[in-house]
Design goal:
With about 375 residues, the chain is α+β, with helices and mostly antiparallel strands. The protein folds into two domains: about 5-205, L-fuculose-1-phosphate Aldolase, CATH 3.40.225.10; about 220-350, Class II aldolase/adducin N-terminal domain (L-fuculose-1-phosphate Aldolase, 3-Layer(aba) Sandwich), CATH 3.40.225.10. Helices cover about 45% and strands about 15% of the residues. It contains 16 helices and eleven strands. A seven-stranded mixed β-sheet has the order 3-2-1-4-7-6-5, sandwiched between helices. A four-stranded mixed β-sheet has the order 8-11-10-9. Helix 7 (about 150-165) links the parallel strand 5 and strand 6 (about 175). Helix 5 (about 115-125) packs across helix 14 (about 320-340). The radius of gyration is 21 Å and the shape is globular.
Length: about 375
């Protein structure tokens, strides 16, 4: 039991389709003195032992003893400084996951946090909390939507204490609204058993599934439109097109697009943006319809969209490289998947605007996006 097993379980879930996206998800192993936690921006599917940050648990405990500013930026910077100070000697070049405190809280040897599309179909739905209580008979701790980092860790700390007071045991499943799931156990087999149970229960209740068949990388005037979008985005931007049966259904009109029109989780914001641009077919021609729509979008959001969807055509991923554009499309496909699953649990529930703004401006997520973009 230890670091080798942590690498194995991390790769196991990091390489499974629909569990983690890009640099998302994090894992850990702990003993009484030390916590090994995934480094920020590291990919679980290919992680090596060196991808984990060795943390001093006594120093981590000191983070809870301090009082922090009510200002979110000042608070998160102070907490990050505390996390950095808790790194063991020799780990100074690494940056621990932002959810390190949460990993340390769970009184189990192994913790695996992922963002499965199936789980987020529940966690990003209007009836998610009620259905979770029903499905798991109160065994899963539900955490309402909140900002990640210290706020999330504080809420989880209180919820874990309340769960133990109520049941006399420690919680091993945490469901985070608009975020994902934490599973904790004293063995990797225990982790797999938890995930198997959670996924098995949810599979039984899914009524609708996305259909990504009929994929096409060219359709109608997609090539010309991609060039126009890339020019509008500026610099060396690239726009990559995709159409499939699911995307075709979503771009029928603005109403059809609504279930994917905003952010569902932090990962979606980081890699595919929080405000996709929907373009009515009439706005493509004549010019300057698209240009005017683009300008209006920039004025409203302050950001170049990473996703542009064109009525009757398909979806474009936009980025400063082809890789970044395709990553945006991949995350948008996950948004489409989650929103489709959410129909089985009362319909989609977006993140609130204040929480979207927090992620868009949070240094931690900017760092993670930068690390992902720098990978070959």
């Amino acid at each position: 039991m230890g670091l080798a097993e942590l690498v194995e379980i991390s790769r196991f879930y990091g390489s499974r389709a629909g569990y983690v996206m890009a640099g998302g998800g994090n894992t850990s192993f702990k003993d009484r003195e030390t916590l090994y936690v995934k480094g920020s921006g590291t990919s679980l599917g290919t992680i090596e032992a060196g991808g984990f940050v060795r943390m001093d648990r006594k120093k981590l405990a000191l983070v809870w003893e301090k009082k922090y500013s009510d200002n979110a930026d000042e608070r998160e910077q102070a907490v990050l400084a505390g996390l950095m100070a808790a790194r063991s000697p020799g780990e100074e070049s690494k940056r621990p996951s932002v959810e390190t405190l949460l990993h340390d809280l769970l009184p189990f040897s192994y913790v695996v946090h992922t963002h499965p599309s199936l789980v987020n179909g529940l966690c990003c739905s209007k009836d998610g909390e009620a259905r979770a209580a029903e499905f798991f008979d109160g065994e899963a701790v539900w955490i309402p939507s909140c900002n990640p980092g210290y706020v999330l860790s504080s809420l989880v700390k209180a919820a874990l204490g309340a769960y133990r007071s109520r049941t006399g045991k420690d919680a091993s499943i945490i469901l985070l609204q608009n975020h994902g799931v934490f599973a904790a156990a004293d063995s990797t087999d225990g982790i797999k058993a938890i995930y198997g149970r959670v996924m098995g229960v949810l599979e039984k209740h899914i009524k609708e599934r996305p259909d990504f068949s009929g994929r096409a990388s060219e359709y109608g005037n997609s090539g010309e439109t991609a060039e126009r979008l890339a020019r509008l985005a500026g610099g060396n931007s690239v726009a990559v097109f995709e159409r499939n049966n699911e995307f075709a259904r979503l771009v029928e009109d603005a109403s059809s697009f609504y279930p994917v029109s905003s952010a569902l989780t932090p990962d979606h914001i980081v890699y595919s943006g929080s405000a996709p641009l929907f373009i009515n077919a009439a706005d493509l021609s004549p010019a300057p319809g698209l240009e005017a729509l683009w300008k209006d979008h920039l004025e409203k959001t302050g950001r170049v969209p990473k996703i542009a969807a064109v009525q009757g055509l398909g979806v474009f991923g936009i980025g400063d490289s082809e890789k970044a554009a395709r990553l945006s499309l991949s995350l948008f496909a996950d948004t489409a998947t989650v929103s489709r699953y959410a129909l089985s649990f009362g319909g989609v529930l977006f993140m609130s605007q204040d929480k979207i703004d927090f992620i868009n401006n949070w240094e931690v997520e900017q760092y993670r996006a930068k690390i992902e973009a720098s990978k070959k």
